[in-house]
Amino acid sequence: MTDVQALTPYELLGGEAVLRRLVDRFYDIMENDQRAAGIHAMHAKDTTLIRDKLFEFLSGWLGGPQLFIEKYGHPRLRARHMPFSIGEAERDQWLLCMYQAMSEIAMSDELREHLEEAFFKTADFMRNQ
Q1: How far, rounded to the nearest angstrom, does the alpha carbon of residue 73 sit from its chain's CA centroid?
Q2: Domain boundaries defined on the chain
Q3: Which residues contact 81 (CB under 8 A, 6 or more apart)?
Q4: What are 24-35's pLDDT values in tens digits?
Q5: Of 42, 31, 22, 33, which Cα lies nearest the Cα of 116?
Q6: Nearest to 89 by CA among 44, 40, 32
Q7: In the 3-class helix/strand/coil scheme, how is the chain assigned residue by residue?
Q8: In whole angstroms, what is the distance from residue 5 CA to residue 53 CA?
Q9: At 5, is the pLDDT very low, low, confident or very high (cuts 50, 70, 90)?
Q10: What is the C-alpha separation between 36 and 50, in angstroms, rounded?
Q11: Residue 99, class by beta-carbon neighbours within 10 Å (0-12 exposed, 13-18 middle, 19+ buried)?
């Protein structure tokens, strides 16, 4: 991300409002795309809380306010995801939803590539199967 070194991915994305739109679109896709049925089944019917948690986590992860850490402490991502069976199929379903949501948000190619790589690494790290 060489174009504006001083800005965080959070700022380059557009801050709070755009991140909220990304997270909401991610869960909307998950709820409505049959290709994501496996990971959708892992979530409660009401996704209000998990939408907020993902938004809060991504805020800090992208270099914005550390909302998740302030509320819940260290994310401990693998530990929080251990109760769920996550293999390549689940990873790929999660990425399908996130990449689709990202495709609907205006951003530079450089930021998109950076986020796709970072999301892949993180999603792959969640695999426990």
Answers
A1: 18
A2: 19-125
A3: 126, 128
A4: 999 999 999 999
A5: 22
A6: 40
A7: CCCCCCCCHHHHHCCHHHHHHHHHHHHHHHHHCHHHHHHHCCCCCCCHHHHHHHHHHHHHHCCCCCHHHHHHCCCCHHHHHCCCCCCHHHHHHHHHHHHHHHHCCCCCHHHHHHHHHHHHHHHHHCCCC
A8: 28
A9: low
A10: 16
A11: middle
Whole-prediction pTM value? 0.91
Q: Which fold has domain 19-125?
A: Globin-like (1.10.490)
Structure tokens at 71: 């509320």
Token pair belonging to 9: 């991915």
Which two structure tokens, joined as six digits, stand for 126?
Answer: 């969640």
Hey, what are 35's tokens?
Answer: 């290709």
